Amino acid sequence: MKRWMMTAAAAMLALPLIAEEPKKTETTPAPTTTTAAPDSALVAAAKRANRKGKKSATPVITNETLKSSKGHVTTTTNQRSLNMPPPAGPSWEEQQNAKRAEEKRIEAARAAQAKAEAAEKQRKLAAAAAQAEEGLYENPEDDPATAEAAADDAAGQKPPQR
């Protein structure tokens, strides 16, 4: 029931909106005989801003005012050469290249240091592994346990069993 009521209400509200649309009539614009180029958007805006007939302090430059103006453009037959001083320092590209080279050098130094640290760590690990494999003593006679076992064998005594 509510759906039917909502549809009917929407139709009742839309009906006046549809009925109020103005009818479109086909009119042909009168042909213009002027051959002047159309003004730019900026000039058209300036003309619209001056609708009340007030004269502005600055003139609006349009195609018509340019045609009626009597301005003169002068040129010279001999032009002096410009003497530009050489650049004071290295160019921007040279500075960037030097910066990149310095960054590469620093990165290479860091990589070499990391490689040396890794090699030192590997050497220490290899020495520790070799020491663990051989025992704490380079000479087996220096080992107290080995010396005690040899003394017991020489005396002919067996260690007590627990």
Question: Quick recap of the structure?
Answer:
Helix content is 54%, strand content 0%. The protein is mainly alpha-helical and 162 residues long. It has a domain at 92-154.
Protein traits:
162 residues; single chain; mainly alpha; 54% helix
Topology, pairings included?
Blueprint: H1 2-19, H2 41-49, H3 63-68, H4 92-134, H5 144-155
Annotation field: number of helices:
5
Give the number of DSSP strands.
0
* Structural class by SSE content: mainly alpha
What are the secondary-structure elements, in order, as H or E?
HHHHH
Tell me about the largest β-sheet.
none
Radius of gyration: 51 Å
State the distance separating the first and last CA atoms. 99 Å
Helical content stands at 40-55%
Mean pLDDT: 79
Taken as a percent bin, the fraction of beta residues is under 5%
- Cα shape: elongated
- Low-confidence regions: none
Question: Describe it for me?
Answer:
By secondary structure, the protein is an all-alpha fold. The chain has a domain at 92-154. Helices cover 54% and strands 0% of the residues. The chain has five helices and no strands. The chain is elongated and about 140 Å long.
